[in-house]
Amino acid sequence: MPVLPVCLLEPLWVQFSALLPERPPVSPTHPLGCHRRRIAERVVFEHVVAALVHGSGYERIASPGCSDRTIRRRLHEWAAAGLAEQVQTLALRAYDRMIGLELDELAVDGCLTKAPGGGDAAGRSPVDRGKQGLKRSVLTEGAGIPLHLVSAGANRHDSPLLGPTLAGLDKLGGLPEDVTVHLDRGYDSRPTRALLADLGFRGAIARRGVPAPLQAGTRWVVERTHSWMNGYGKLRRCTEKHAAVVDFYLFLAAALVIIRQLIRRARARYRWPTRPTTRRLK
Asked: Nearest CA to 57 among 44, 45, 42, 71?
């Protein structure tokens, strides 16, 4: 049984493979020309997707045709090249072309997850007895499509991460004139309002002391996006120590979320009209 349905894996692989540099199957630097053939990129990619979905270690998902060292080595190459973020940007453009991004209503929020191995992007979690954890700050549009993500330690506050998160809007073609950013009460501060004013955005920030359900508004879409992304085991419990690899998995999961929503909404919008069925009366 496949890790992901083919309708998600194939479009992702087509775009991902187009970004990969061409490499010879055998290294030309060997003096005798008798190197082992390079493991196919598709084989390694399927192992990386399996690690993303299940959250397992590379030793567990390794196979006779692809070792755990090969997975790690290739993963670091792809992460250093920023391929996952490029694929996520391509998925955003495809969604905007076929469905349309609702950029007049934005939402930003952070989510804490576990990081038992620590690492460059980990920090002491305030909600997990001081254990190592990660925080991801996610920017979504009005329907919950993830536009940009920023990783940080679990001990980082949400408010300072708002600037780097909103900086991801630069990869989009343009924004409407009237943009509203919906935030929870953790962003209720002067620096947040000053930042939104400098960017020309209007802030809908929840006030402290008021129960959250009474002022949730349209901010619930980012919470749903966090739930979608927490369905991937590597994000719920990340054992990666390099920040580039952590970001690679974050953007790869975001690309899968976008592709899934694109297929689901395009199926209802672009399918052929059904003919009315009539029963023959006997």
From this structure: 71
Query: Amino acid identity of 3?
Result: V
Neighbours of 242 (CB within 10 A): 15
223 near 111, Cβ under 8 Å? no
Secondary structure class of 139 (helix, strand, coil): strand
Burial 105-117 (b: 16+ CB within 10 A, else e): bbbbbbbbbbbee
pLDDT tens for 182-221 read 998 889 889 999 999 999 999 988 877 766 654 556 788 9
Asked whether the beta carbons of 244 and 72 are under 8 A apart, the reply is: no
Amino acid symbol at 139: L
CB burial of residue 174 (10 Å; 0-12, 13-18, 19+): exposed
The DSSP element (H or E) to which 150 belongs, if any, is strand 146-153
Whether the Cβ atoms of residue 8 and residue 259 lie closer than 8 Å to each other: yes
The alpha carbon of residue 195 and the mean position of all alpha carbons in its chain are separated, in whole angstroms, by 24
What residue type is 205 in one-letter code? Answer: I
The two structure tokens encoding residue 268: 């209802």
List, for residues 117-146, the tens digit of each pLDDT value. 888 889 999 988 889 999 999 999 999 999
How far is Cα 191 from Cα 79, in angstroms, rounded to an integer? Answer: 32
Nearest Cα to Cα of residue 11 among 261, 256, 265: 256
Is pTM, for the whole model, over 0.85? yes
Residues 6+ apart with CB under 8 A from 192: 159, 162, 183, 203, 205
- Annotate 91-133 with DSSP letters as a single string: HHHHHHHHT---TTEEEEEEEEEE-TT--TT-EE-TTTTT-EE
pLDDT digits (tens, 9 = 90+) for 95-110: 999 999 999 999 999 9
* Whether the Cβ atoms of residue 254 and residue 52 lie closer than 8 Å to each other: no
pLDDT exceeds 60 at position 279: no
Element containing residue 134 per DSSP (H, E): strand 132-140
DSSP 63: B
